[in-house]
Design goal:
Structural class: mainly alpha
Largest sheet: 2 strands, antiparallel
Shape: flat
Oligomer: single chain
Mean pLDDT: 76
Radius of gyration: 29 Å
Number of helices: 4
Helix content: 55-70%
Order of helices and strands: EEHHHH
Low-confidence stretches: 1-6, 9-41
Number of strands: 2
Strand order of the largest sheet: 1-2
Length: 155
């Protein structure tokens, strides 16, 4: 627990709302005096894009992957989730690839005006299909619960 040295030489614990600066923390040395810590600027403490702990470095990526793999234990439930997740993930990747190919073909053969029209229509169709799909999924869930509860009037 971190303590803050007050003006009257008493220690108090910082609350969550207080912002503790680097040199406000005291560390008792052998003779009981206060030792100041060397602090870096706030920008260099949390330097995730250019520092030694940058997210793009292979060592950091490997450590993060190992941490995630330690969290997910491979058991029967994980295998059943992967059996469902891998085909769905593959189909989504293939759908994105084919959509990119379609956009490339429309842009190459029909021009930019046709590409703009294609993109706008694709966005509108996607929004409406997601709306209708959400209603259908909700209705399927509620109807199955109602039937399971024996409330056929609600279903």
């Amino acid at each position: 627990e971190t303590s803050i040295m007050k003006d009257d030489d008493t220690l108090s614990s910082p609350s969550i709302d207080e912002d503790v600066q680097c040199n406000e923390c005291a560390s008792p040395s052998k003779n009981g005096s206060q030792v100041e810590y060397n602090c870096k600027d706030d920008e260099s403490i949390l330097d995730l894009c250019c520092g030694e702990n940058a997210w793009w470095r292979p060592v950091v990526i490997t450590q993060a992957f190992r941490y995630v793999m330690n969290l997910a234990k491979y058991d029967k439930e994980t295998r059943s989730i992967f059996k469902l997740a891998i085909p769905y993930s593959f189909s989504e990747v293939m759908e994105a690839i084919f959509e990119a190919i379609g956009i490339g073909l429309v842009g190459h053969y029909l021009g930019t005006d046709s590409l703009i029209a294609y993109s706008v229509v694709d966005i509108l169709i996607s929004i409406s299909s997601e709306l209708v799909g959400g209603i259908i999924d909700t209705e399927a869930s509620l109807c199955s619960h109602a039937i399971g509860a024996g409330n056929n009037m609600l279903a």
